[in-house]
Every structure is written in structure tokens, then in C-alpha cells.
Specification:
The protein is mainly β and 541 residues long. Helix content is 7%, strand content 37%.
Amino acid sequence: MNSMNRRSVLLAGLGVAGAGALAACSSSGRTPALISPSGSAVIAADQKRTRTGRTHELTLTAAQAKLDLGAGITAGTWAFDGQTPGKELRVSAGDTLAATLSNQLPDQTATSIHWHGIALRNDMDGAPPAVQRAVRAGRNFAYRFTADAPGTYFFHPHVGVQLDRGLYAPLIVEDPREPLSYDEEWVVALDDWLDGVTGTPDDVFAELRQGMGGMHMGEDSSRPSRSSGHEGHDMGDMGGMDMSGGMDGTSSSPSASPSGASMGFMLMGAQSRLLGGDAGDVNYPYHLVNGRVPADPAVFRIKPGKRVRLRLINAGGDTAYRVALGGHKLTITHTDGFPVRHQQVDALLIGMGERYDVLVTLDDGVFPLVASAEGKNATGMAVIRTGSGSTPKATVRPRELDGMLMAAAQLHAADDVRLVPKKADRVHRIELTGGMMTYNWAINGKRFDMNNPTANPITVEQGQRVRLDFVNTTTMWHPMHLHGHTYQLGGSGPRKDTAIVLPKETVSVFFDADNPGQWMLHCHNAYHGEAGMMALLAYQA
């Protein structure tokens, strides 16, 4: 395994005390005083959370693991308690989770756990260096927080590009007053995989950060904008339309694709109209569904006629997936944990960090649940078996993948979670900048500074209605994730914490500043975020 990288060294040397000191002022001396991650305002907000009084105690051990991916394929990686995805955690809304991270990773590698999508107390968010010291190898860290919002979430490291290893697992917060009616549920984690097969994520990042050299890609400012020019969440013509004929064509491997030639780890020519152009940076040999390759898939067995809730999680590092279940339509009920007006579709698009819940009533037979790597000419697959029949081939492509497809921009928040209309008290332009040429991804032209995380904060005040305008000036798409909050897409769109922003387009989101502290805002492409497309959204004291 790789030795500890520079960021791990840096993060292990920065702590909450250091972050608190930095909150007072930046190196320029112009940063306003910020609320500390463990300050009185954070504690006061946490005390208002509704609690059941139940506590779930567990230890999560991050260590080296040799995984069986199926079909005779093994991978040396890092995982929680020796499996990927890690063991599913399930609590009820209002329960307290007391999880001890035991870092048994090699080579003095520091790590952390970020509880993706949970609006928890700031100092438990697991995002070094802003809110905690990265946990050194051989050390433990105790996370303790109340999960008071039902939904589908997951957890993963927030150090370097560790997100693209096997260190992730689902976290399901059940609703004690569940309004949906169904017989069973199945949690489905999607992942793009290369760790321990063709290299490591650190190897990938080392190659990517060298940039494209003289090759023309990713920084073409001449490409015309497809933005509607209206405030809101325009996503072009990507959803609610007939996708017959396909966008990504085949299900062959990237190395075999005539349009997807690669240079080492860098994937060239991966194109998707659905994603506005370049589909991704990285050449993955495998795409997994619940830790298995399509040639030896994970299988969910159930009786025909049952109504099933599928909780879909994209835990990948660089890949959006188009998901469909052969022979069935899906009814979207939630995205990123929050309910939406139900929408029946053939397929849905899910970017890195996004989650979708869908309902489906199952026919009698054997059906492929396919996650097509959008624009990359590759496929992940699991199987739902309700009766007799042979397992579908690994290359199967259900016609539903090319039917009625939805993404978040075409959905609407359920009435009970839609924000009350209100004029924004504060508006921030979040310009997404950079490109593949020099791999200089950034926010507002500035790469996030790990040495001084509060140098250029995006500031808000408690109680404000805030609007963030994600303005994508690049020619690649970015899934933008905000810690500690959910925002609403436009005036009536879904409540989300991660949203796709297409090239040359603007997505406006709204949230209420009701969870004080210092929160990361970043692209959930593991490599874009680590390269610098990250910022700190901080509450002013």
C-alpha cells in the first residue's frame, strides 16, 4: 500500500484547537470571526434535536483487506471490518450513534469518517482540517451524534482520495412514522473500482495532477453556454425524455471502447450528452454493485408480487450511473434522504454522492439491476430473483436504460419538506473553475488551502435564507456536495445535499442556515475535490 501522502501528514497535525484559532482571522487578517466547530452555538443547536434516548454503540475498524469481487477477482484495498461495502448501519430517527473509529491502516496513514448527508453537530462531521484532526494510524476517535432526519445516507473517509478505496458503508435512518407501504427493502451501493487491481487512488491522482499537457480538453472557454439564463436549476434536456438509441452505446470495457482510449489511469474520450460532454477522468477496470462484478453478481431473492424499496447509493469516485431494472418501471420516492412527489420512470441518473429511493413491484423471474457507467461504455450489475431462470449475462443492457429517464432537476420536493418561499438574505456565487489541461480544479478560482482552511470562507449567519449559485465555467460536470445541510433546487425542486451541475450551466440552490459551524462545500468527484474544488462555508460569530 502507498505510504502516507502529504495531505495525511498535514491533516494529522491540525486539530480542532488549530481550526478554532484560525477561525478568528485569516493570514490576511480580513476574515470575520467564525463560529467554532465545538462552540456554544453548535452545542445549543444540537440540544434542540429531537432524541429518542436510544444509543447505538459500535467500533469501525479501518484496515487493509483482501476482497473477493467475484469471478475469481481479488483486490487489495482498505475497508471497514474487512468488507466492502461495510456493514450497513441502521438507526431510527432521533437515535444517537456512538461510533468509534479504530485506524489500523498501514504506513502511518491518517483517516476520518464523514457521515455523508447527515445534518449533525459540526465537530462530528469528520472533515479535517476544518472540524477535527485526522485520526493517526494506531489511534481511535469517538464520533457521537444524533441522526434526527430519516433517509438513505452513507459514510466514508474525508482525507485525500481515500473515498475511492473500499472505506464506505450505508447508513439508514428509519422513519418511525414511515408513510410508504412496501414488503422488503434492499440497499444497493454502486462503485467504480480499481484499487488493488490496476493501482491505487493515490497513483491515479498522481497521474491526473500532471494534467493533459498539450492535449485540448476541459478548459475550452469557447464552448457556448447551454444555460437557460434563468435563476434556478436548468439541466438542459436531460430528463423526462425518450433516450432510445442510448447515450453510451455499449457495455464493453473502457479499454476496448473505440471512443474511450486511455492513458494509464486517465480515461480519454468518455463522452455523454446527458452529462454535457466529458463523462469522467478515470479508467476503471470494474464497476461494482454491492461489491460484486457483473460476471458474478450480488443476488436479491424474494417472492414475486412483492413491493420492494431499493435504496440506491453512488459511492463511486468518478462515475455517474444510469440505473434501471430490466422488465420494470421504478417509482422515485426520495433523493438524498428527502421525499419527492412520486415519479414513475424507466431509469434514473445518479451522480457521485447522490442517493435515490425507489419502489418497484416485482414480476416473476430473474431480472438484471444494471448500473451503466454513463459515457464510459462499462456496466455494473446485480440480480433480483423471484423465480426460476438463468442469470443474465454481464453485458446485458435492458431497454429501460434507453427509456424515460429522470435526474434530480425534473423532480419536485414533497409538500411537507418544501421550503417556505422567502427572499434570500444572502447570495453567494460559487464559480466552478479549472480543467483537465493542468488539473487545476477550484472554486471561485482559488484552490482550497489545507494549510489555512478559513482563509477565504463563504460566510453566512444563523437564521438566514441563503442562495448559492453554482456557476460551472468548466467543460466537465460536477456533483456539488454541502456538508451539514440540505438545500432545495430552485423554488420547488427536491431537497438535496449533492447536485449535478452540468458544464457551462448554473444551478441555484436555497437553504436555511440552521446548523452553525464550519462546513465543507466541494465537488464529490474524489479527484476534483482533492485537486482543490473545495471551499469552507462558515457561520459568522
